[in-house]
Specification:
Elements: H1 3-21, H2 30-43, H3 49-58, H4 61-70, H5 81-99, E1 105-109, H6 116-129, H7 131-137, E2 138-144, H8 147-155, E3 157-158, H9 168-174, E4 175-178, E5 181-184, H10 186-189, E6 192-196, E7 208-213, H11 222-235, E8 236-244, E9 257-261, E10 266-269, H12 287-304, E11 310-315, E12 320-323, H13 325-331, H14 355-364, E13 368-377, E14 380-392, E15 398-407, H15 409-425, H16 432-452, H17 457-494, E16 498-503, E17 508-511, H18 513-519, H19 523-526, H20 541-551, E18 559-564, E19 570-581, E20 587-598, H21 599-604
Parallel strand pairs: 1-2, 1-7, 2-6, 7-8
Antiparallel strand pairs: 3-5, 4-5, 8-10, 9-10, 11-12, 11-15, 13-14, 14-15, 16-17, 16-20, 18-19, 19-20
Helix pairs in contact: 1-3, 2-4, 5-6, 6-7, 11-13, 15-16, 16-17
């Protein structure tokens, strides 16, 4: 097969994966990406990319195996120890000095995998700040596209081999033994927030003081790396630091960052100069060119003084004069597009037709707003509010327009979710009044947010405050769920029969007090353990087949088993096994109920 045909087959496969599952790997380096796809093709015994695409269509589980192969999770605690020592001794003190004693510290660990890098960052900052100050001020956002790896990071449970790179003093201070493994301390773990985030597609987390992205950029091609670095530049606060891995080299040539210590891959954010601060070389020009340059500079000055959202500037001749960082990220604009006629760019008609609106803004000498514009980006649908502002010079002459794009997709999704919740609430009469009031209040806040998006920075800040209110409501719902869980635990504890709840892997989910009295093991001793591996006086092997039958949907009659209780007395245990079902009627586990009769007492009678 020629390399050209092979490359086209790879591109078609990547487009199929993007459309089917929303994972966009087109920015990854092709040689390493092709090698990992070939590995999966060998495992499933498929030779052609088209055949592998057909295999994915008929075997949906293969997507997960392919993603695990592509998204290799290679990480460890204190990887490159001298670099982390430098961070603790030099970088963290500078961040603390720049922020003051009360300002929150925000940290972003991208491509965090199973969390080792995020928890390393937590230990380094806690050592410098002290634990109390760390818990009060620091939030670490650990993100990745691998949901399985994020789940491991949230549990923060690591083997002794994984903890070998951690200095012994820090290991004893920050980790607690849990059976055969070690867990990061729960009080400090609350400062680390794990979440799904795609560096290529999702907007960056903002107002970051310290950004850790070690050996993540290496998986992207040069153009995608530049886009991600622009996102990092936007995410970092002034005086923020970027910490990369040894494999990243492109940032050393980026004008957005300056090396602090190149050998250790530590960089500082370079502030973007305002238009009037930029140095323009003085060269001889004729009067017409000088007048055109003055007009262009005036347009750029006005444009970059506008709202801090995605924005492009178009002059009166219809040429693209400038685009800010967010606009370049959103629409894929570069230097080569600057100076081109808007009508020759896709931006002129996507996400909406702009030229007629620009003419309207010129005619009315007034901003033109277009709300709730649907923009299809691959398999994703975004919603934008677009504002077109006419720009005037000192003499009142029209210089051009500033076009601002407000991404309101999140608020639109919230509105749709609210409408769905409202329809569901109509079927529950007892909760109707409180639910309707909450939805009406939230809907008013969202409507207010959409109106405020048409104005300034202060209105955007108000939107953030409203979202925090919604977070409080979600927290209240969580508290209610916790109360229900406590209630269910109380019900289990009040039953006289021993009740054991198992998941589909036969791990113990619940173990009531009667089970403890019968077999002598507490709930915390058996929680998460495989039921058939427990060392109790009950012969467990005879229970394997009945439990598996119940998990398969079969009905099992009660039966008895001879056993020895925790007091060493022989007993006959009557056992009933029932399925544990979800709200969708799927069997998600089994409930084992036991009643024991003292056989020695019965024999004596």
């Amino acid at each position: 097969m020629s390399s050209r045909i092979r490359d086209s087959d790879v591109e078609r496969l990547l487009a199929f994966i993007r459309d089917e599952r929303g994972f966009d790997f087109t920015g990854y380096k092709r040689p390493s990406l092709a090698r990992r796809i070939d590995r999966r093709m060998q495992d499933v015994k498929v030779e052609e990319y088209a055949s592998y695409q057909s295999y994915l269509e008929h075997h949906p589980d293969e997507f997960a195996r392919l993603f695990d192969t592509i998204l290799i999770n290679v990480t460890s605690f204190f990887r490159d120890g001298p670099a982390w020592q430098y961070i603790g001794e030099e970088v963290v003190p500078q961040i603390l000095a720049a922020r003051g004693p009360e300002v929150p510290i925000r940290i972003w660990s991208t491509g965090c995998s199973t969390g080792e890098e995020a928890y390393t960052t937590a230990m380094v900052f806690a050592e410098v700040m002290g634990e109390d100050d760390f818990k009060r001020r620091v939030k670490i956002y650990a993100t990745d596209v691998d949901n399985d790896a994020l789940g491991i990071g949230r549990h923060a449970d690591y083997s002794p081999q994984q903890l070998e790179p951690v200095p012994e003093a820090l290991r004893e201070k920050y980790f607690e033994p849990v059976e055969s493994s070690y867990a990061f301390r729960s009080d400090l773990r609350r400062s680390v927030i794990f979440g799904h985030h795609d560096l290529v597609q999702d907007p960056p987390i903002s107002r970051i003081d310290f950004l850790v992205s070690r050996n993540t950029l290496m998986y992207f091609d040069a153009e995608t790396q530049r886009r991600v670095l622009a996102s990092f530049h936007f995410a970092l606060r002034e005086n923020g630091f970027l910490f990369l891995g040894k494999s990243e080299v492109l940032v050393a040539r980026s004008p957005l960052f300056t090396p602090v210590d190149l050998r250790r891959r530590v960089f500082a954010k370079v502030s973007a100069p305002r238009q009037r601060d930029r140095v323009v070389p003085k060269v001889p020009v004729d009067p017409i060119q000088e007048e055109q340059q003055t007009a262009t500079d005036a347009i750029r000055e006005a444009g970059f003084e506008a709202a801090p959202v995605a924005q492009v500037i178009v002059d009166v001749s219809g040429r693209l004069v400038a685009a800010n960082i967010q606009a370049r990220m959103m629409f894929g604009l570069g230097l080569r597009e600057t100076g081109m006629l808007l009508q020759d760019l896709e931006l002129s008609y996507r996400p909406l037709e702009l030229r007629s609106r620009i003419e309207q803004a010129y005619d009315e000498r007034h901003p033109v707003s277009v709300r709730d514009v649907e923009w299809h980006v691959g398999s994703e649908v975004r919603h934008l509010d677009v504002q077109i502002h006419p720009l005037s010079g000192p003499t009142g002459d029209l210089l051009g327009v500033a076009i601002s794009f407000f991404d309101v997709s999140r608020y639109r999704r919230l509105q749709e979710a609210l409408q769905e919740s409202k329809r569901d609430a109509e079927t529950a009469y007892e909760e109707l009044q409180s639910t309707v009031e909450e939805l009406e209040t939230t809907n008013e806040e969202l409507q207010s947010t959409n109106e405020e998006l048409e104005t300034t920075n202060e209105e955007l800040q108000s939107t953030n405050e409203e979202l925090e209110t919604m977070n409080d409501e979600l927290q209240q719902r969580t508290d209610e769920l916790n109360a229900v869980s406590a209630f269910l635990e109380g019900v289990l504890g009040s039953l006289s029969a021993a009740v054991i709840v198992l998941d589909r892997q036969l791990r113990v989910e619940a173990w009531n007090d009667a089970a403890r009295d019968l077999w002598g093991l507490r709930s915390d001793e058996v929680s998460g353990q495989h039921f058939l591996n427990l060392d109790i006086g009950l012969p467990l092997e005879p229970l394997r087949t009945p439990i598996r039958a119940v998990l398969a949907g079969e009905d099992i009659e009660p039966f008895t088993v001879d056993a020895v209780n925790r007091r060493g007395r022989s007993t006959t245990v009557s056992i009933r096994i029932a399925p544990l079902t979800s709200t969708l009627a799927d069997v998600i586990g089994a409930i084992v109920m036991m009643d024991a009769a003292d056989r020695s007492a019965t024999d004596g009678a």
